[in-house]
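haha ok so turns out i had the wrong file open the whole time. this is the CORRECT one, sorry everyone. sequence first:
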Amino acid sequence: MTLISTALPPEALTQEWTKLGPDASLTLSAPGKEPLQVPLVPRPVEDAELKECTCWDWKGLAQDEGEEAAEWLTDFLGKPARLVRYIGTPGAGDALADPKRRECELPFGKGVETAFADGYPFLITTESSLADLNTRMPEPLPMNRFRPNLVIDDSVEPWAEDDWQELTVVGPPDRKVEFVSLKPCSRCKARRFSPALLSRAAVTTTDQETAAVGKEPLMTLGKFRSGKLLGWSALASWKHEVFFGWNLTATSPGTVAVGDDIIVTRKRTTALAA
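then structure:
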């Protein structure tokens, strides 16, 4: 799947989804395949086919995107696959009361809704932290190994994000979006270093251009960014996990853009030790 690339029309990044035109599409591209256009505007409720699906611990309903998308993905992946759309009910009930609603990873994301992201809707990293990691690596890696959607430039110190608890992204004329940093992002457990398990590739160990799988950066991160070495023990599993980046949720709606400023409005005062 790492060889499948996605693209959105510009209006999808600047308008509310409900205001998109009927021709707005998500484009999927892959080597040897004609691009697939998936409409961004969902089908009417009465025409939607719901599928039971699972995302980590969540089990619920999602809208199937049809046979064309299923055939495209099945052909490229070489195994049966279907594309489904998250259709949760924002702000209504909870994951138990509403089978369509998915909460962020527990216990840190209790009551906060997310779609089919890994565990949280936002992941923040910094170029400074990547640069520091790369000084320790046999070969430097690009940021796409960590799939962030918010990247801060090298104007901050390496690993400064460990201390951020609340932050605001601001841009002209008066745009701003407020975020809260909930938990550090674990990049697979140390048990994956076992030779018997290294074949279970994660995004971090997969070259995003070639799909080749290796051991890095997990081996290097394990030498200085493990929960044990950092003294992070809020969860028992953290002792054997390695960390790069932080999981966020937004506490206000809005738009962020390349070149916006970040203001740290509150630093972390609670230790991450149990």
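The chain is about 10% helix and 25% strand.
again sry for the mixup
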